[in-house]
Amino acid sequence: MSQAEVTESQRTVDELLPTRLVEKATGLERQTLVRLQGFPQFVVLSMRADGRPAKIAWLKSEVDAWILARAAERKPTQAPTEPA
Fold this sequence. Notes:
The protein has one domain (12-72). The protein has helices at residues 3-10, 19-26, 30-35, 60-72; strands spanning 16-18, 43-47, 53-59. The chain is α+β, with helices and mostly antiparallel strands. Strands 1-3-2 form a 3-stranded antiparallel sheet. The chain is 42% helix and 18% strand.
């Protein structure tokens, strides 16, 4: 088996998340998601007659990575102390 065949056979299929699930996961609306700089690019699933995207989705792995990166950017906070 060639290296190319090994690499091809090791690929896995990522999951496509519809807009409503990405909105729920991020707390952001569709309009914000498609314009937000640094947010993963959507995948066009179907087009309207006028050439605009009708149905879009995002790769789950890219959305997950974006969320984890935002969480990693948080400043550490002190754990609350119990009152005496």
